[in-house]
């Protein structure tokens, strides 16, 4: 189906239609309102079209002028800003979750190498977008094996440090893996 939105997404360029009665851009099946003119602008984020914003039917029926195009592009600038701000907030939440996991593990084990191992492991993991009381990482089977391998290597490397409480610490790690992973 050849639509205005599809054309803007494919080309990545703005469309300003002054007479919307065109077979190639027929929207009467989609919208109950009669459009005389419209302007469609691509919302780009990092040089990629993420959405299309359309302004329909200008009141004076003359079509959208160059000044209207500039005004609409300013509105798109604000939209792109808020999308990038939202992405930064999600990244910040993921980093805070990462710090929480490192803190929880470091408090129990007390070994500085744990932080490095978990940081290496968590770089491979996909962190959730938001977190609260129950934290879960969405891990594939290979990622779970990778984390178990790192934990095993840590215990083999530092067995003397954990000698009397080795089993308790290993049980804690198994519980930690179960808490932070999904089956």
Description:
This protein is mainly α and 183 residues long. Helices cover 52% and strands 11% of the residues. It has helices at residues 4-11, 66-109, 112-122, 141-157, 166-180, and strands at 15-17, 38-45, 48-56. Helix 2 packs antiparallel against helix 3 (112-122) and helix 4 packs antiparallel against helix 5 (166-180).
Summarize the structure.
InterPro entries: GAF-like_dom_sf. It is built from 5 helices and 3 strands.
List its salient traits.
single chain; 183 residues; Beta-Lactamase; 2 domains; 52% helix; elongated
Write the layout of secondary structure elements.
Blueprint: H1 4-11, E1 15-17, E2 38-45, E3 48-56, H2 66-109, H3 112-122, H4 141-157, H5 166-180
Antiparallel strand pairs: 1-2, 2-3
Helix pairs in contact: 2-3, 3-4, 4-5
Organism: Triatoma infestans
InterPro entries: GAF-like_dom_sf
Protein name: Camp and camp-inhibited cgmp 3-cyclic phosphodiesterase 10a-like protein
Low-confidence stretches: 107-112, 124-139, 159-178
Q: What is the β-strand count?
A: 3
Overall SS class: mainly alpha
Question: N-to-C SSE series?
Answer: HEEEHHHH
Q: Percentage of helical residues? A: 40-55%
In spatial order, strands of the major sheet run 1-2-3
Strand content: 5-15%
Q: What is the count of structural domains?
A: 2
What is the alpha-carbon Rg in Å? 27 Å
Provide a count of the helices: 5
For this structure, the quaternary state is single chain
Mind describing the biggest β-sheet?
3 strands, antiparallel
Cα shape:
elongated
